[in-house]
Amino acid sequence: MTDEPKSEDDRKIVLSAHQWLAEVHEGGMDPELQAGLKEWLAADPRHKWAYRRAAGLWESVETLRAEDLLPTAPVLTKRRRWSWWAAGVTAVSTSIAVFFWAPRLEHYVDPQLELYETSIGERSTFALSDGTRLHLDAASRVMMRFDPAERSLTLRQGAVFLDVESDPDRPFRVHAEGAQVTVTGTKFSVVLANSSAHVAVLEGRVAVGATDQQKLGKEHEVSMALSAGQAVTVGPSGAMGDLVTVEPRQIAGWRNGRVYYVEAPISKFVAEANRSLWTWIVIADQQAAEQRITAALDTEDLGALLQELPKIAPVEVLQPIPGVAVIRSSD
User: Fold this and answer.
1) Are 241 and 235 in contact (CB under 8 A)?
2) pLDDT at position 194, please?
3) Residue 11's pLDDT band (boundaries 50, 70, 90)?
4) CA angle 111-113-117, nearest 5°?
5) What are the sequence ranges of the domains in the chain?
């Protein structure tokens, strides 16, 4: 089952997942309820996918609040709990429709757009018509359009590594949130996380600018040239971060089944883990998000690192309901 429900049966599963999530929140750790949920999750791989996605959608529209998941959260009365969940139904329904169908509607409006995507835990490589190699990380999505004057790719979600075929007469442009990357031929990665785009170059050179430079004031640097071993983060408005140096192995290491964190914030780990694991991870506070970790591991071991976090950083990892983990500061 991919991000798009392909049948009426799939749509019923998605609805059931949200109903289970609501019942778990209402009933807490009731043993009978927990047993029923585990049985439902084990009955069909699509159930686990839908439940995990449901938890993510609630968190993304700020209705599944981390403070409501923590054991220290105030106890809600039945009426207040019902109001909280009822108020979120419309928002989640809208989010589901947008998440499932927006890319398809975009393709319908512009048939020249090509959609490439991967599901949770899936990584794929595509050979494009111009000879470029497109590597997609797990749970990632891009929209592409090639024409005689330009090659264009928009990263909608996740992470991509591109080995661009050289063509000086037809530049290759990547759009991601507030960033625009322009190349003629090179190897580089773009990662979307926390509404920002992180660009890193493995070989060659790229020009990084703002998608809409008119929105930026003169005090902001609106373009930057990156060479091999350099990286920059571009905010949603197009504002440039500092130019930093990165090791080659740190650039899209997931292509080889490895991930590397060198004094990296926990928020970076969470962004990558949420593309690979069926458990949806929520960070409860900014202090926890900014804690730094150093680790090198296989992508299949991201779940193990989640459990080991309290040993290498001052945080706690809680799993208040199946399919959801909460990281919070232990200080």
Assistant:
1) yes
2) 79
3) low
4) 125
5) 8-108, 111-247, 257-329
Backbone phi and psi for residue 225, each to the nearest 5 degrees, phi listed first: -100, 130
Please determine, for residue 290, whether its predicted confidence score (pLDDT) is greater than 90. yes
**Predicted local confidence at residue 81, as pLDDT:** 38
Name the helix (H) or strand (E) containing 32: helix 31-43
Which region among 9-13, 41-45, 214-218 has the lowest average model confidence (pLDDT)?
214-218
User: Residue 68's closest CA among 60, 79, 59?
Assistant: 59
* For residue 232, pLDDT beyond 90: yes
pLDDT tens for each residue of 138-150: 989 999 999 888 9
The closest alpha carbon to 272, from 295, 254, 289, belongs to 254
Beta strands in 35-148 (DSSP E): 114-117, 124-127, 133-136, 141-146
With beta carbons less than 8 A apart as the criterion, state whether 252 and 161 touch.
yes
The correct CATH number of 257-329 out of 3.40.50.2000, 3.55.50.30, 3.30.230.20, 3.10.310.30 is 3.55.50.30
The Cα angle at residue 31 between residues 30 and 33, in degrees rounded to 5: 65
Q: Summarize pLDDT for 241-262 with one digit per residue, the tens.
A: 999 999 999 999 999 999 999 9
**Quick one: pLDDT at residue 36?**
84
Fold of 111-247: Jelly Rolls (2.60.120)
Strands (E), the chain: 114-117, 124-127, 133-136, 141-146, 151-157, 159-163, 172-176, 179-183, 187-193, 196-203, 205-210, 223-227, 230-234, 244-245, 258-265, 280-283, 292-298, 315-321, 324-329
What pLDDT is recorded for position 317? 94
CB 168 within 8 A of CB 182: no
Contact 272, 189 (CB under 8 A): no
